[in-house]
Every structure is written in C-alpha cells, then in structure tokens.
Amino acid sequence: HGNDVLNRTSFHFQPHRNWINDPNAPMYYKGFYHMFYQHNNLAPKFSNIMIWGHSVSQDMVNWIQLEPAFVPTESYDRHSCWSGSATILPDGKPVILYTGLEEHKELDRRQVTVLAEPKDASDPLLREWVKPKNNPVMLPPHDVPHDCFRDPTTGWQGQDGVWRVLVGAKEINTERGMAVLYRSDDFVEWTKYPTPLLAKEHTGMWECPDFFPVAITGKEGVENSVNNASVKHVLKVSFGGHDCYVIGKYSSENEDFVADSEFTNTTSDLRYDHGTFYASKAFFDNVKNRRINFGWVVETDSEEDDFEKGWSGLLSLPREMWLDTSGKRLIQWPIEEINYLRTKQVSLDNTHLSGCSNLEISGITAAQADVEVTFDLPILEGNPQVLDSDQVDDAVLFDRGSSAGCVYGPFGLLALASSDLSEQTAIFFKIIRRGNGYSVIMGSDEKKSSLRDNTKKSAHGTVLDIDPRHEKISLRCLIDHSVIESYGAGGRNVITSRAYPKLAIGEAAKLYVFNDGTRGVTISSLDAWSMRNAEVNLNAL
Length: 541
Ligand code: DQQ
Hints:
By secondary structure, this protein is mainly β. The chain has 2 helices and 37 strands. The longest helix is centred in the middle third of the chain and has 7 residues, at 303-309.
C-alpha cells in the first residue's frame, strides 16, 4: 500500500508508526522545539503500558523522532507514564511533571505525579531524563478517587514567588470535575491548596487542564507567570470528549480565578474545536512571543484499519492562540511556518456562484492542500423564512443535506471529493434567520466522507460568531489526506474532521466550491495551494 491508500497525512505530526494520543510538554529549549506524546510504540492502539514519545523540530513542521523520554522503570510508574507538562525554571532548566500509574497493592494503578529532570541540561535535544529519588511528588488527596488524579499543568509563579500547578481530578462519589491546585517553593515539595482553583458539578473527570495568561489586546503570547492588568487567564479542561475553556481574572494574592462564564457540559461551552480534537496543550514560544496549542486528533476508522495502516492518531497543526478583541473567545490560527509548505497556487476573485451549483478548483493537489475562501452575500433583507433555531436540533443544523430555514446556503467547500461526488466532506455555512437577526451555522459534514462503511461519520458544527450583515464569511481549510482542519471567520471557530476516502485519494481527490442554496453567493476571493510534504518522524527507531 502507498500512503494514499492508507490515508496517512503528509504535514501533520505523527510518530513514525503505531499509536499516539495526547501531546505532552511542548517546549522550546536551546534551539529546538520539543514535542512529547502519549505513545504505544509496539502497536497502533492504546495500551496499558503507555510511554512518552519524543520528537524535536526547528520549525514545528518538520520533526525528528528521538528515543522515548519516559518508560515505566519505577514502581510509581510501572503501569504507564501518562500525560504531563514542562516548566522552564528561572535558571533556564526545564523540568517535567507527569502522571505515573503506580504498582500498588490495594489501589490498582493509582495515579501519582512524577517529577523528572534532564540528565544533561547542556544537551539541546534533552535525550535523557532522570526521575529523582523523592518521587512521587503528589498523591491523590482524600476526596479524589485514586484513578482520577492526573495530567499536571505547566507551573507558574505567583507574585509571592511561590510555584503553582493544577492537577485534573474528580470529586469522590460525585461527577464534580476539579482543577486541584498545588503550591511549592522549590518545585519539588508540593502542598495541596485547600480549595480547587475551579470545580463544576456534572462535568465528570477533568483531564489535561491547561491554565495560562493571554494579553487583552494584541496577538502576542505571554509567559505563564505573567499576571497584571493587561492580561486575562484561560482555563481549559478536557471532558465529555471536548476541550472546553473559560476566560477570567486570576489573582495569586487571593488565590482565586473568577471566570466570566461557567462550564455547562453542553454545546454552549466555549470549545477550542467543534470536531475531533482533545487533550490539547499550549506553550509559550519565547522565540516568536506567541502561544501555541496542539491537540490530539483520534482516528475514527476501525481498530482493524489501524492495524492495516500500522498507525493511529495524530496531532493538530500547531495553532497560535490569542484573545479576540471582544474578550469573549480565543482566536486560533495555524502558525506561519505552515505557509512555507505552500507551493503551486490557484486563485479566483469576484466569482458568482449561482444557486444549486458546484465549481471545481483544479490545478492543485486536492488531497494535500491549503484553501482560503471568502464569501460575500447580497444584502440580507426582505422577509425570508424565519427559523426558530432553538427548535431545530444540531443533527439538522450541521447536516449539509438539510436546508431547513436557510436564507442562504448551505454553501462552502467539498474537500476530499471523488469526481462522481460519491465521496466528499462538506465544510459549509448556512445563514439562518433568528429572532431579529441572522446566524451563521458552520458545519463539517462527514456523512459522505467515505464509501467504506466501517468509519465513523459525524456532522460537526457550531454557530459562527459573526454577523453576516456586516462581515464577509471566510474559511480556511487545511486538507491532509484523512484530516481537514477548518478555521471559520479568521479562526473564531474551528472544526477538525476525519475522512477516510476510498476513491478520493492521491491525484483522484478533487476540491469544489458548492452552493446548495437557492440564491446565489459571491466568492470574493479564493486562494488554494498544493502543500509540500513535511518531514515528520521519517526515521525508524
Ligand atoms: N490520556 C492520558 C491521560 C489523560 C488522557 C493517558 C486524556 O493522562 O487524562 O494516555 O486523553
């Protein structure tokens, strides 16, 4: 089998082979970006002996795979080395906190926090790590089950110089998710703070918390310990299959985080991504002063397929993150280094797309492409059919095939499409009338993504945060064989989809702009590029 048949990506992060899940401890150190990851290096499936894979890069696009960083060697991590984070200490040395699954007589696979240090901090590749004697450094507290205590964050220092980290947890006998706060003077000895930094009923176990400051104005990232009037803080937690976040004000003096909204465990939570994306981790890149996030994108084909492919899982593209001018959400955008992979380009401008039509975008490698398109709608007026969207469920709203209540659309792109359109993933918009205004639905519909029947095909979607009366509707899709990352409205909403086409592979894959609506729309501009292959962990270990 060639890569195309097996749907392997060409510019997303994947280990050389076998299984990957969460990104762990991304950092920049002495000239290299480091990515660690939950890895089973023996088979393309999750196992009960998880280790930390390790790769390095100079641009976060091309990666070299090194020896695994952590494997079970001690009783406290005998059953796995689970997720964790890196912190660069004031002397410039990195340390890592990760989750050990302990060998324990009564409490099977108890989750503990393990501290690790580089064996030789002068090695920019950080190839070897040591687990000092005083491990583990944290044990599950009494009100937390022994198997619901994991994923320590990157540390930050309060104004008092004391270190803080969060650990994901759940309250015993309830579904109250918690971000448990620990404090330390030396990063070695940790004391639990009496109350969690945040907790919420009915959300279940909080996995992979992430907590960091964002500048109130501008796109620049800020280092984890920065806290003043010019920043707000973001708390992200992974639960219910999604990476959800709240924005608020943190005070180390009062040791509290006052969030502007609450987690609800419903679709109204702010999400990094409305598609297939989980357990993400952000870090501050001091080379370019930006905050960058990576998430895990799971396979949605069958385990049998994964064994045939020899791999399972990948990471999202590195996404730069900053606070929207509204202060109400984050903006995400692929780091600029991704653009260096762009090669052959085709463009369109001011092209009318009449109702019920398709337009093929030819001349690029549609299976491996970057596409930016902006749609302009004629004036929204008159008295079109009013849709009370509260009465329409998501399954209908996010389905390309349904135009119930649409003023315009659905219109958008058909990615990874076969020439007979029997295979296609539609990334689209629908304008619906709601109350006195209009809403834009953004969807990524995988229902026809593959003729194979053993793949999961979901219709993902969300309400795009724009007013279509005042703004054009823009979309950027990064298409990479079996993954499509779609950024709506300049990165205000993101949806990642998986697709495993059988026909729409290699040169046979096509790209279309489509309009299923009855009224025409204008493509004000479209630029599409073929993408080069990145060199991602090509070396076999
Ligand atoms: N994956 C890790 C855990 C984490 C979960 C295990 C999230 O540490 O909670 O591989 O995907």
